[in-house]
């Protein structure tokens, strides 16, 4: 018999959660590997269809899971990802252009490149630690790395590794560090940053 239910207590870092059948009944454990096919990562409140079986410990487990994709939800995730990607690529392109044309010191581009690489590997290590229940990197450390210039690497790690990308509170703090970093970098490297950007664009017209 196939059930339909809603996912809850989903832990995206470890790739598992639980499902409660629609209309009531026993909850079941659901693992990412039990999905037959999917267009995106599962998340809390997703509707799924599944078969329910008992494991060796007499606990219910969802098998042959299908994600009942909501096209609007998928489109919303895709649109959000596209907008954020365009914004970051635009910033990095502008950073490179300003550096090449002498409006920003070369050290500015180096800081972003180096801290981004370091941040990506810290995310990767934390993702591995989450899967193996080892000592985790504190979220404050991840945010600090983003604040000092590693936020492009953090963004790529979140999307590439599927790490911290679904945690709303973490994402709010992350984007706050992005805004603060850009503001601080503009003030630190360019003084009046808006005048530098406007003069740059005027020079290439």
Tell me about this structure.
With 205 residues, the protein is an alpha+beta fold. Helix content is 55%, strand content 19%. It contains five helices and six strands. The chain has helices at 71-100, 106-131, 139-161, 168-190, 193-203, and strands at residues 2-11, 16-21, 28-31, 35-37, 47-54, 60-67. It has a six-stranded mixed sheet, with no helix packed on it. Strand 5 and strand 6 form a beta hairpin. The longest helix is centred in the middle third of the chain and has 30 residues, at 71-100. It is elongated and about 70 Å long.
List keywords for this structure.
205 residues, alpha+beta, six-stranded mixed beta sheet, elongated
Strand order of the largest sheet: 3-2-1-5-6-4
Shape: elongated
Task: Calculate the terminal CA-CA distance, rounded to whole Å.
Answer: 67 Å
Strand residues, percent: 15-25%
* Poorly predicted runs of 5 or more residues: none
Structural class: alpha+beta
State the helicity in percent bands. Answer: 55-70%
Query: What is the averaged pLDDT score?
Result: 84
Helix-strand topology string: EEEEEEHHHHH
Query: Largest sheet at a glance?
Result: 6 strands, mixed
**Strand tally:** 6
The number of helices is: 5
Radius of gyration: 22 Å
Q: How do the helices and strands line up, and which of them pair or pack?
A:
Layout: E1 2-11, E2 16-21, E3 28-31, E4 35-37, E5 47-54, E6 60-67, H1 71-100, H2 106-131, H3 139-161, H4 168-190, H5 193-203
Parallel strand pairs: 4-6
Antiparallel strand pairs: 1-2, 1-5, 2-3, 5-6
Helix pairs in contact: 2-3, 3-4
